[in-house]
Design brief:
This protein is α/β, with parallel strands linked by helices. The protein is built from 19 helices and 19 strands. The chain has a seven-stranded mixed β-sheet. A five-stranded parallel β-sheet has the order 3-2-4-5-6, with helices on both faces. It has a five-stranded mixed β-sheet with strand order 7-8-9-11-10, with helices on both faces. Strand 4, helix 7 and strand 5 form a beta-alpha-beta unit. Helix 5 packs antiparallel against helix 10 and helix 13 packs across helix 15. The radius of gyration is 25 Å and the shape is globular. The chain starts with a strand and ends with a strand.
C-alpha cells in the first residue's frame, strides 16, 4: 500500500540550546526535543532512568485505605482473593501481588482467580464473586479490571465481600463502591503519573505495603521484570515511571529473570539480550496464548512457580498454545483475505466486515489487525459463539472505532471497547444489516486521508551521518514504545550500487554513503525492486540497525518504505 510520510516538526532553537549543553550530534538533540527532553537534567534522567525517581505510592488516592484494609485482612487471617484479567497485564499483575502477599499471609488464606475468557468474559465476573463467597473469601483485590464493575462490586457487598480495585482504564463518572480504588486516571487522584498499566498500579501497591510493613525494597523489586513485560505487552506510554520500570525490568530479565520468564526465554530459543521489541513479539504472545487457546490460570502458575523444572513444563504448554494460536491466526487470515479478494463489493467499501462460523474466537482480534495490514480499513472479524455471533474490531490510526460501532447499536446485543479496538456480539440474522450500517457510518465519518496508512518520521538524515557512535547513543534511548518510539529517518535522492531479492520477497541493497556504502534490508519489500536499481534515485524511510555476522557488527538500515525521487 502507498503510505503517507509525515515528518515531525522540531523546535530548532530548543534543539540548538540542548546541543550546547549535551555536546552530541544535532540530530540526536532533535530527537530528544521531540520527546519533550529540553534540559541537561532531563536528558540525564532519560538516559539513566533511576528507581529513586519513582513517585511515592502514597500520592495515589485511596492508597492509605488499601494498605489498611489488606493489613487488617492479614492480621485477622481473612481469606484474600487476588483477581485479574486474562491478558499479559492482568496475569503478571496477579502473579506479582499474589507472590508478594503469600510471604506475609497465613497458609491457606490467599488464592488467585483469572476469569475464563469465553465463559465469563473480560473483567470482574459474577462467577468469580460467587467462587469467593462459596470459599469464604472476604476481600477481593482486582488488578487490571474493576473500575467499571459497579453492579458486580455492589453485589459483592451484599455478600460481605470487600473490594480493592487496582485499575488503569479510564473511569466513568460513577465509580464502584469499593473499599479503595487505586487508579491514577481518577479525576481527583493527585498521583503525578497517569499512564501506569494494571501491573504498574499493583507494583505501586506493593511499594506502599513494603513501606508500611517495614520490608526491604527487594520485596517488591523482585517482580519488576514481570512489570516490564506488562508495560511492553499493554503498549502503554514508555515515558516517566513506565520508562524507569521497563528499563530496570529489562535489566532483571537479561541478568536475573524470574523462574517463569527464564523458562519462556528458554522455550523461545532466545540467546541474546532482550529489548522491548523482543518482549512484545516473543514473550507476550506466549503468555496471551494461554487465555486465547486454553486457560490463562497457567500463565499465573508459571510466574509464581519457584521450581525451574515445573516452570519448564508450564512454559512448554504455553509454547504449544502459542503454536496453535499462530496456526489459527495464519489460516483464518488467509481465508479472510481470500473472502475479500473474491467479493468485488469490498473494493467500494470504506470498511471490512468478515464472518465465518468456524473461526476460533480467541484470535479474531489478531486477524482484524492482520487484515488492516493488507486492506487499510476499520475492520470487524466475526465468528459463531453458540447461538450468537461475536467478534473483534480494530481501527486505523485516527478513527474513533468505538463511536462507529456505537452508531450501529440497534443491530447489536452488546458491545464495548475504546478508540482503537472493540468487541461486539449480535444475532446471526443481523450480520448483513450490521455490515451495511457500519460501512455507511464509516463512509460518512472517516476523513479520506485516514484510509492511507501514515509513516511518522522523526528526522531527515544524510547517510554519511549514520555512524556507529550515533547508533550507540540511539540504543541508549531504549526502551522504546509510545511516547518514545524507535527513531525513524528519511534519506532522499539515494542510489544503490547493488539490489538483490532474497527468498523471492525481501529486498537487500548496498547504498552509497559518502565515500563508503551501507547495507539496507527491506522485509517483504520486493515490489520496490524496479525503483531501487543502480542508476535510479529514490527516497527511503528506515530505522538504523546493526547486523552481526561472524562476531562482527556493521551498521544496517531496516527499510520501512521507498519512493522514487521526484526532484
Amino acid at each position: 500500500m502507498e503510505k503517507r510520510w509525515n515528518i515531525l516538526p522540531c523546535d530548532t532553537e530548543q534543539a540548538a540550546r540542548l546541543q550546547e549543553s549535551l555536546n552530541i550530534a544535532p540530530i540526536l538533540c532533535r530527537l530528544l526535543v521531540q520527546r519533550g527532553i529540553l534540559t541537561f537534567d532531563a536528558a540525564r534522567d532519560f538516559f539513566r532512568p533511576s528507581l529513586e525517581n519513582l513517585h511515592s505510592p502514597w500520592l495515589m488516592k485511596d492508597m492509605q485505605a488499601a494498605v489498611k484494609r489488606i493489613g487488617k485482612a492479614i492480621e485477622q487471617g481473612e481469606k484474600i482473593l487476588v483477581f485479574g484479567d486474562y491478558d499479559v497485564d492482568g496475569t503478571t499483575a496477579v502473579a506479582s501481588l499474589y507472590s508478594f502477599l503469600k510471604k506475609q499471609a497465613a497458609p491457606g488464606t490467599l488464592d488467585f482467580y483469572i476469569p475464563n475468557r469465553y465463559r465469563e468474559g473480560y473483567g470482574v465476573s459474577k462467577t468469580g464473586i460467587d467462587y469467593a463467597n462459596d470459599n469464604g473469601y472476604t476481600l477481593i483485590i482486582s488488578l487490571d479490571c474493576g473500575i467499571k464493575s459497579i453492579d458486580l462490586i455492589a453485589y459483592a457487598r451484599t455478600l460481605q465481600i470487600d473490594f480493592i480495585v487496582c485499575d488503569h482504564h479510564l473511569p466513568d463518572n460513577v465509580l464502584p463502591d469499593a473499599v479503595a480504588i487505586l487508579n491514577p486516571k481518577q479525576a481527583d487522584c493527585p498521583y503525578p503519573y497517569k499512564e501506569l498499566c494494571g501491573c504498574g498500579v499493583g507494583f505501586k501497591l506493593m511499594m506502599a505495603l513494603a513501606e508500611a510493613w517495614d520490608l526491604p525494597d527487594e520485596s517488591y523489586l523482585e517482580y519488576i521484570d514481570l512489570c516490564a513485560v506488562a508495560i511492553a505487552a499493554d503498549i502503554v506510554d514508555m515515558t516517566g515511571e513506565n520508562r524507569i520500570l521497563a528499563y530496570h525490568g529489562l535489566q532483571k530479565i537479561n541478568n536475573k529473570p524470574s523462574v517463569g520468564i527464564a523458562a519462556i526465554i528458554q522455550q523461545a530459543g532466545i540467546k541474546s539480550s532482550l529489548n522491548i521489541t523482543n518482549v512484545v513479539f516473543m514473550i507476550a504472545p506466549r503468555v496471551n496464548a494461554a487465555g486465547r487457546m486454553d486457560d490463562a490460570r497457567k500463565a499465573v502458575q508459571l510466574f509464581i512457580e519457584p521450581d525451574a523444572t515445573a516452570a519448564a513444563t508450564l512454559a512448554a504448554e504455553l509454547n504449544i498454545n502459542n503454536t496453535e494460536r499462530k496456526e489459527a491466526d495464519s489460516s483464518i487470515t488467509a481465508e479472510a483475505l481470500e473472502m475479500i479478494a473474491q467479493d468485488d463489493s469490498f473494493k467500494n467499501r470504506k470498511s471490512s466486515v468478515v464472518y465465518a462460523e468456524h473461526w476460533h474466537k480467541g484470535v479474531v482480534g489478531i486477524v482484524a489487525s492482520r487484515l488492516i495490514e493488507h486492506h487499510y480499513r476499520p475492520t470487524v472479524v466475526l465468528t459463531r459463539n453458540g447461538d450468537m455471533v461475536t467478534g473483534s474490531a480494530r481501527s486505523v490510526s485516527g478513527f474513533n472505532l468505538y463511536e462507529a460501532i456505537h452508531a450501529c447499536r440497534e443491530h447489536l446485543i452488546a458491545y464495548g471497547g475504546h478508540f482503537a479496538a472493540a468487541g461486539l456480539s449480535l444475532k446471526p440474522e443481523k450480520i448483513e444489516l450490521f455490515s451495511a450500517t457500519f460501512d455507511r457510518v464509516v463512509s460518512e465519518t472517516i476523513e479520506p486521508h485516514l484510509l492511507t496508512p501514515e509513516i511518522t518520521i522523526d528526522a531527515p538524515i544524510a547517510l554519511p551521518d549514520v555512524t556507529m557512535k550515533m547508533y550507540n547513543i540511539l540504543q541508549q534511548m531504549e526502551p522504546f514504545g509510545p511516547g518514545n518510539m524507535r527513531p525513524v529517518f528519511v534519506a532522499t535522492r539515494v542510489c544503490s550500487t547493488q539490489a538483490t531479492i532474497l527468498k523471492e520477497k525481501h529486498l537487500r541493497l548496498n547504498i552509497a554513503a559518502g565515500t563508503g556504502q551501507i547495507t539496507a534490508i527491506g522485509f517483504n519489500m520486493h515490489q520496490h525492486y524496479p525503483v531501487v536499481q543502480p542508476g535510479n534515485y529514490f527516497d527511503m524511510v528506515f530505522h538504523i540497525d546493526v547486523n552481526e555476522w561472524n562476531g562482527k557488527q556493521s551498521l544496517q538500515l531496516r527499510l520501512l518504505d521507498i519512493r522514487k525521487s521526484t526532484d
